[in-house]
Amino acid sequence: MHQPALPHLQSQDPEIAGLVEAEARRQFEKIRLIASENYVSPAVLEATGSVLTNKYSEGYAGRRYYEGQQNVDPIELLAIERAKALFGVEHANVQPYSGSPANLAVYLAFLQPGDTVMGLSLPMGGHLTHGWSVSATGRWFNPVRYEVRAEDGRVDMDQVRDLALKERPKLIWCGGTAVPRTIDFPAFAEIAREAGAVLAADVAHIAGLIAGGAHPSPAGHADVITTTTHKTLRGPRGAMILSTQEHAKAIDKAVFPGLQGGPHDHTTAAIAVALDEASRPGFAAYAHQVVANAKALAAALLERGYDLVSGGTDNHLVLIDLTGKGVPGKPAAQALDRAGIELNYNAVPFDPRKPFDPSGLRLGTAAITTRGLTEDRMPRIAAWIDEVVQAVAAEDEAAVARVAGEVRELLAGYPMPGWATAP
C-alpha cells in the first residue's frame, strides 16, 4: 500500500485514492528504466505533501509581497545555501517550477527576441528548449544547431567551434535529454569565450551524478547551470538555476517577476531535503552505482547484439537503436511496458523514422539503483528486454506476459520508497 497511508483521501475521494494506490503498486511491480524518473525518499514525499502548499510567497526571502513568511523564508534560504554548497556555485535560484521554465529564464536573462542561440539538435539528443522549432525557443529566437558524428554518436567539438565562430550566438547550450556520454564542459567554455557567448549547461539528467562525484561538474566553466531536481538528484518535481554572482540579479529578475509568480513552497522544502540527502556520503555511493549499473546493462545489451548510440554510456543513460532488430521503438516500448519494464521510445541520431514512431529506446538506471539493484541483475534485465523485442517481432504476447511475472517476482525482494507490502 502507499506510504504514507492515505486515510483522508480514501474517505474523501475513493476514486482518486484508488488510482494513487494503483500507481504506487505499478511503480513497485515494474522495472522503471525511464531515464528522467526516480523514487524520492519518504522525507521528500512528506515535505512535498505538507501544509506549505497552502502558502503564497511571491518575491524572494526578505522581499515578499505577502505577509506570513516567517517560516517560508528560512526554508528557501536553506535550499539556496544547500544548493550552493553541493554544487560549488556562487548563486542559486530554487524557485523555477520545472526545467523548461528554468531554461526560459536563461533566455529572458541574456537574450532579446531574434537573438541567435546554439544548442544540440533535438534528434541528436538535445532538448526542446535548446532552440528546437516546435518550442517557443525556436520560434522567438534564431536557432543554430550542432550535431553528433554519424560514425560514433559523439559531439564533434571542432564542428561546435566552427559553427559558433560562424554564427556568433549570444547563448550556447551544452547538455541534453539523450546524451549518454560525458559532457566536455571545459571545451564548451573555451568555445563560448572565443565566440563571445554565454555558456549554459543543462544538467537536468546528470545533476545527481555531478553531486555524487560520478560526472564532471560544469561549475567554474559554465556561466549558468540549469537543472531539474528530480531525475538522478532524487528530489521533487522542480528546478534550479545556478550561476556566478555576476549573473545573479539577471537570473532572479528573469524568474520573478519575469516568468512566474509565487513559488511552490512545498516543493522548495522538498528540494532542500533532497539537497541535504545528496550531500551525505551514501549519495556518492548511489551516484557511482547508477553509472556502474548503466555500464553493466549496456555491456549486456551489446553482448546480445544491440546497437547502442555512441557504443555505450558514461552516465545513467543508454540509447538503443533497434533498426538492426527490425522492430520500431514505439511497439517495443509498449510491449516492454506490458512486460513490466518501463522505458520510452526515442529518436536516435540520423533516425529515418518519424519522431512519434522512432527507431530507438531510451533507458536509464537511476530508479532501479534506488531500489537496490546492482550490476549482477543487469544481464537478466538485458535478457528480458531482448526476449520482449523478439516477442514483438514474433507477435508472441504469451512471452510478454511471462516476462511480466518474472519481473514482479524479482522486484518483490527490493523495497520501494512510498510503498509498503501488506503484512
Automatic annotation (TrEMBL):
Site keyed Plays an important role in substrate specificity: positions: 230
One Gene Ontology MF term: glycine hydroxymethyltransferase activity
Enzyme class: transferase
Pathway: Amino-acid biosynthesis; glycine biosynthesis; glycine from L-serine: step 1/1; One-carbon metabolism; tetrahydrofolate interconversion
Catalytic activity: (6R)-5,10-methylene-5,6,7,8-tetrahydrofolate + glycine + H2O = (6S)-5,6,7,8-tetrahydrofolate + L-serine
Domain (Serine hydroxymethyltransferase-like): residue spans on this chain: 9-385
Location relative to the cell: Cytoplasm
Main location: cytoplasm
Protein family per UniProt: Belongs to the SHMT family.
The protein's name in its UniProt record: Serine hydroxymethyltransferase
Originating organism: Actinomadura yumaensis
